[in-house]
Amino acid sequence: MPERLITYREAVNEAMRLEMRRDPNVIVIGEDIAGGAGRADKGIIDSWGGPFGATKGLIQEFGPERIRDAPISEMGFFVAAVGAAMTGLRPIADLMFVDFLGVAMDAILNQAAKQRYLHAGAVSVPITMRAMVGIPPLADPTKPGGGTAAQHSQTLYPLLVHIPGLKVVAPSNAYYAKGLMTAAIRDDDPVFVCDHKMLFAQRAAVPEEAYTWPIGKAAIAREGKDVTLAGFSYTTILCLQAAEVLAQEGIEAEVVDLLSLSPLDEDAILTSVRKTMRLVVVEESPPRCSVARDIAAMVADQAFDDLDAPVKTITAPHANIPYSSALEHLYMPTPQQIVGAVHEQLGRR
User: Fold this and answer.
1) Where are the domains of the chain?
2) Alpha-carbon span 349 to 343, nearest angstrom
3) CATH number 3.40.250.10 is the correct assignment for the domain at 219-345
4) Homologous superfamily of 3-207 in CATH?
5) What span, in angstroms and rounded, lies between the C-alpha atoms of 138 and 144?
6) H or E stretch at 231
7) In 101-233, which ranges are continuous DSSP H helix?
8) Model-level pTM?
9) For residue 26, what are the β-bridge partners?
10) Pairing label, strands 253-257, 219-222
11) Phi and psi of 294, rounded to 5°?
12) Where are the alpha helices (DSSP H) in 169-277?
């Protein structure tokens, strides 16, 4: 398939566009996804596509019947999207920021994720939910620290992963963003797609045609034999940066890019750990009940005898995200922390 370098943002947009062309039942609903709440209904069609531009241009091609600008009521339009999914449509519900999860939680937790179970498999809910996660970049898109504080910068993966019946994916680049978004739209169960703000401007080689990446399948981002670094979304980038530093010291780190958090590719993690005998898991969320700690527990339970050192987890502190950009830098996990954890495992400290 022909490939070109496009941004993560363009990849997400392209996945939605191709699926909407392929299947007339695919719709998008959310706040400001066309040109601001109510503007499409008033005949004002522009190409803003929300604060991150993920739906830019879709209103022109598919019109206000399929690109539905919603009022500022996340609970309202998420419930509407769940109902639409149960009656034959394939809605993409755009939450904008994952920080708004609490407002829409009943629709996600008690409706979308439970309907197949409550109806003994007779009902499916093919809804794709998406939201931006994480600390945004500064003017330099490679550096975090956007100063959007505690209500617009969280990574609430653990809350989502805890919900049975809900699939959760966290792409690490544009290639996986398009493949996982396409897979989510085609899936007959609810899928929550977490798109990190730090990744939106980064480019990767992406095929022009539609394709899927299997939900529940991890990828080996870098081969190695001395230690396994497990990350997802933006922390995969941090793991790769740390692996470069370690390589200069003669330490070969293997980077496992999880991509899906629920279902989790436990086999990929365990296979890598049994090869390297060491594991560092990196997550941007606070540590208590985190995905990182859950993976550490799983490995300790299933591969304890294969470990040559205790599993290390690198997370944010158990604190709210500060407004100060300077303090944000202290909040975020860093490649230096990952390198330090590997040094401890290898007895270099």
Assistant:
1) 3-207, 219-345
2) 6
3) no
4) Thiamin diphosphate (ThDP)-binding fold, Pyr/PP domains (3.40.50.970)
5) 6
6) strand 227-231
7) 101-106, 115-118, 157-161, 174-186
8) 0.93
9) 90
10) antiparallel
11) -65, -45
12) 174-186, 234-248, 266-276
Angle at 80 between CA 58 and CA 263, to 5 degrees: 80
Structure tokens of 127? 């809804």
Instruction: State yes or no: is 65 an active-site residue.
Output: no
Taking only the tens place, the pLDDT of each residue in 131-145 is: 999 988 866 666 666
- 14, 152, 283, 328: the catalytic one is 152
CA distance 184 to 253: 31
Active site residue 74: yes
Instruction: Give the other-Cβ count within 10 Å of 212's Cβ.
Output: 16
Catalytic residue among 14, 31, 74, 254: 74
Taking CA atoms, 141 is separated from 11, 138, 144, 200, in Å, by 17, 6, 7, 9
From 283, 269, 254, 252, select the one nearest 217 (Cα to Cα).
269
The H or E element containing residue 92 is: strand 90-97
Token pair in block for residue 163: 């919900």
Residues across the chain: 349
What's the pLDDT tens digit per position in 56-104?
Answer: 999 999 999 999 999 999 999 999 999 999 999 999 999 999 999 999 9
Amino acid at 293: R
In this chain, the answer to whether the domains covering 3-207 and 219-345 adopt an identical fold is yes
